[in-house]
Each structure stands twice: as C-alpha cells, then as structure tokens.
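#struct-pred

JT: dropping the chains for the assembly here, can someone run the whole complex?
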Amino acid sequence: MTLDQLPRASSAVVIALDSAGAERLRLMDLGILPGTEVRADLTSPLGDPTAYLVRGSLIVLRRTQARAIHVELAAT
Amino acid sequence: MSHDCVSCALNPQRLEVVAGSHDFVVVVAGNPNTGKSTVFNALTGLRQRSGNWPGTTVTRAEGGYRHNGRGYKVVDLPGVYSLRSATGEEDVARAYLENGIHDVTVVVVDATRLERHLGLVLQILQVTHHVVVALNLVDEAERHGIVVDTRRLARSLGVPVVATAARRGRGIADLMSSVESVATGSFTSRVRRPPNEDLSDDDAALVVFAEADRIARFCVRTEGRRVRQRVDGALDRVLTHRVWGFVVMALLFFAVFWFTIAGAAVPSDLLYRLLVQDGHAVVRDLLGGAPWWLTGLVADGVYLGTAWVIAVMLPPMAIFFPLFTLLEDFGYLPRVAFNLDRLFAAAGAHGKQSLTMMMGYGCNAAGVTATRIIDSPRERLIAVITNNFSICNGRWPTLILMGTIFIGQLAPPGAAGLVAAASVVLVAVLGIVMTLVVSWMLSKTVLRGATSVYSLELPPYRPPQVLRTIYTSIIDRTLKVLRRAVVMAAPAGAVIWLIGNVDVVGESLAAHLVHGLDPLGLALGLNGVILLAYVVAIPANEIIIPAILLLTMTVGPVDFGVPGGVLLELGDAETASVLIEAGGWTLLTGVNLMLFSLLHNPCSTTVLTIWKETRSLKWTATATLLPLALAFLVTFLTATAARLT
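RK: done, full complex below.
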C-alpha cells in the first residue's frame, strides 16, 4: 500500500520511495527512508495534508507526496 | 562567575566584540526548529549584525563573545535538514563548512529528536572534525521523560557533547569551554569517518541514518512509554479539529486585531498630540528667525510628515508584532498553515503563505521578509508577489474613514457604525480572494516551471518567552519603524509642502498636477487629487488621508484659509464636508478609493524589501506593477458600471 492509504493512528514501515529529484532528497533528509517507521498522526481539518510522526518529529505531507511512498503495516 | 553572568547579554566581557578582533571563528549549524538561533543568541547576547550571504537571499547573522581572554566571532549558518539538498540555504551551509574560514562548528541538535538530528551531525563530521555538539532543549526532553546519556553520545561521535537549555542560558558556559578546548587543540577529536563518496545519494543517506539510529538507541532512554507528549496531542486534537480548529483560529485572529486597534488608540492619540500638535509648534519656534520658506519646508513639510507617520504607525506595530511572535513561539502558527494548506495548495501556493499574509496585515515589508519560512522557490515568490493584498496597518485608516463617511451614511443612523465596519471587512475579504486568485494565476502562468518542494514540520508546543519577545520585538520594530519614518516620510513631507507652496504661472505646482491628473482620475471614478496623493505617498501609505485633505483644500474652489502645505487632522464630519463640498466626492469616489487602496502598488519600503529578498528586477517589477495595473483595471470597471446605471 502507499502512505496516503494508512489509516489515522496506525503505523507502517517504509519500503520504497517512488519520488525523484529534489522531492526524493527532501524526503530522505527528513528521515523518511526504507525501513523507517511512520505513524499517521493528524489530518488537516480540510482533509489534506496529513502530519506523520517520523523519528519523533511531526512531518506534514500532502496526499500527492504520500502517494509516492510505499509502506507496509507495522506488526504491532 | 555564575552561569547567569556568563550568558547575560550585558556582561562587559561580551560587549567588546569588534569585527576582526577575534582569535577564533565559530559557526553554528543545525536543523530548523532545534533552537539553533536561541543558542546563537545565548552565545552572542544582543550584539549581532545580520545581512545576507554574498550573492544570495539567505540570511546571515554574525555576533561574538569573549571567553577566558580570547575573542570568538560567531557565524550563524542557515537552518538546514542536510548538506546535500537543492535549497539555497543548504548550498550556503555546505559551501561554508567545506571552504569557509572557521575553527569550530557547533552543531545544535534537539534532545527530544536526537535520532533525526544526528543525521546532520554525521554528515558534518564527514566534512570537518572540529565539532562540538550542543544537545539543546534538554529541559524539554526532561519534561517528556527522555534521557540522553551525553557521555555515551560523546564517545560514539568522538567529539564533545554539551547539554544545553539555551532559552534559560543553561549549559552555555560549558559550551564556551568545549568550544575553547576544540579551538585551541587541547581536545583532539577521535573521528574516523571517511566520506562515503562512492555511494549513491540513497545509499549514503541510508548509511547515515542507520548509524544515527544505532547511536540513538545506544544513548537515549525513555522513561515511561510515551510516543508523544500527551499535552501536545490533546492540544493538536483541538487546534486542528474540523470545527474547533477554525473557531480557535478565528477567535485568535480577531483577538489580535482587536488588541491592536483598541490598544493603539490611546498611545496614537498621545503621540499625535505630543508630536504633531505640540512638537510642530516647538519646531516652528526653534526656527523662529529662519526665512519663511525654510520654516515651512522643515516644520510644515519634513517634520510634520515624519511625526504623522510615527503617530499612526508605531503603536499598532508595537502591539501587533509581539502578539504575532508570541503565537509563533508557542508553536501555533505552523498549525494554522496546516489547517489552511489545502486552500493554498489549490492556488498552487504553500500553506505557510497564510502566515506571511497575516504578517502583511501589520506591514507588507515584514510580510515579504517573513516569506523566508517558505523554502520552496516557486511558492515563496508567489507569497512575495501577492503579499500586497494583505491590507497593511498604513492603509486601515483610509478604509475605515471611507467606510464611515460614504458607506455608513447609507444605513439608518443606528446601524451606521456596523455597516461601515462590514464594508471594511468586505474589502479585507476581497483582498484574501485576490491573493488566492493571483497566486493561482501566477502558478499557472509565469511560475509554472519553477521548482517546488513541499515541506512543513509541526514543532512541539513551547511556553512562549513573553517578556523577551515583547522586549526584542518592540525594540527591533520600533527602531526599524523610526528609521523608515525618517528615511521615507521626511522626503514625502517635503514634497507635499513644496508642491503646495511653489507657484508656477499664477497657481501652485499642486494645482497644475491635479488638473493634469484629473481626466485619468475621473475615468477611474477617483480624481486628480487622489492620484497625486498616491504618487506623493509612495514612501508611506499613512499620509494618504492628510495629503488628500491638504491637496483638496489647496486646489479646491473653496478657500479654507489654511496655510499651504500643512498636514492637518480633521474630525470625520469636517473631513466629509471638505471632501464632498470642496472635492466634489461621491459614493463612487469613496468606494473606488477603498478598492484602489487595497490593490495599488506596494509602498517604496516594501518594493525595496522585495528587491532585497528576490534580487531580481523582473520579480520586483512584477510585484510592483501587477497590483497597480489591477487597481487601474478594477476602478475603471466599477466607474464604468456606475456611469451606465
């Protein structure tokens, strides 16, 4: 599945990034890499974007960005 | 000496920093949101100089301190997420760390998010070994039950690690000592990190973060299982709630405006009496023996223009900006960007533009500077060009006066005030609509191909430092405003006096200019006086109303017996009678002046700021001329529509 499909308050592990160029670099600098655990934490009241908990920080991603991040549900 | 003395801004040891008189250069690096600038401030006190990095629009701050008899120059690098990305900030930081003159690099990391921030530390260690890590926000970490073992961390990294809480000045003296030991070579870093240059970007990032992860596991203990502080979670649930999120936002927004308007009334009146009425008389007396034209030019022109701008501008600014900074310190503003992002995304802009717009309601120049928080080039330009549609403090008086005189009068007496206020709010809302529409147009046309990388981080909530905020923003803003008033308003005052008093072929220069501008003015549903006032008031919107009144009395058919070129204030009723009887104003004039005031070109200070921030003639011209063209177009359309009905 991709990150935008992750239900709120559940966690997943990143498998791969489909983005390229500056966008890909930025995601990696924010610590979103294969193997990173990500939790969908808050959704904007207008439905988009969503704030994800990544390595202790709340990182906001728009749906178009989250769609390019492949994840699998974390075994809790 | 106690810690407090060492980190006190008034400590004489720290005040004797002179450029060039230092033994060592220290650079401060770190992620955004780590309290990096607080560490910089704690090291340097209030003695700083800020400018831009040569050839860029990236902020550069420098300061200094003395420690154990040696002088240290401190350079603040821009906050970056890494040393390899595409933004200008990251280029500057990387170039400086690789080639710049520096002896020690202080890397500031957030103790509550160590794992993520270690990535940058490890990247910097590949470039330089003369590093001290400032483990900042340890007080916050303690509150969250996070314990970082600094000795283990120092052993893992091979460089000194100092625990700091820069906001309280905690650990700053230790940090200075560690910097000294690295600078003088008494501490030798034991770093063995060959740069992994043969790796791809992806692999390099993976290696760095894997190591960061390993080190963080080794050094960080969490007492009690808490993913995120409960208070933060609860606050966020309310502040980003579908209903309450917007209710709180509206309430806070109104509260800030109400405090600004209500709170500024008394000091504004006081300043007006002091500077404009009493001060003017004093200045005239001082110039008692001078020729009439010199007294006129200096007292009636330069002095009055300047005094007027200070009286109108200073009090609201001194209230609005500190309130804004408090909300920012608390961590609320990024949530506003988060709540409104979708609206801006649809216009091709960034949610953070909502914040730069709000700044614009204080002052457009400040709003333009604030666009630095948007690190994506395309979205930042959009925010710069459209900031003009946030009605700055200098334009509110014009709108309120027109709303009162021309629109409030249409309502039954009981509702006049309410209707007048509603008309002003309507113009402000129109400004927001314009912002979004113009943003969308720009993103679809001239800025289509520009780079765009979206990122927004929601920092943890922090108790704001009320007193410090008020002190710094008042001092900082006050000085800026005063300087601007003198530099910009003084010549405007002089020009107004000159055109009112220099006679050419039997009538004043002002009269010639007004008659020349009348045809165009009337075509736009305005008049020559308004257009001339807007030309004269390019340096400061605050003097529009006095300039209009003055020109109307100088040029109009009715002789008011006022001395030429003296700015004066009248009550609403007198103003109305002057404009309507002497100026021939109608409802259309009032409405179109409101529209023109909203749309017209930014003031010269803002234009200059746009130039400084973009370093581009093309975008500066766009940001100046696009609003002006819109102002002409819209007023022409309403005037034409009014004539047809």
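JT: nice. The mean pLDDT of chain A is 91. Chain A has two helices and five strands.
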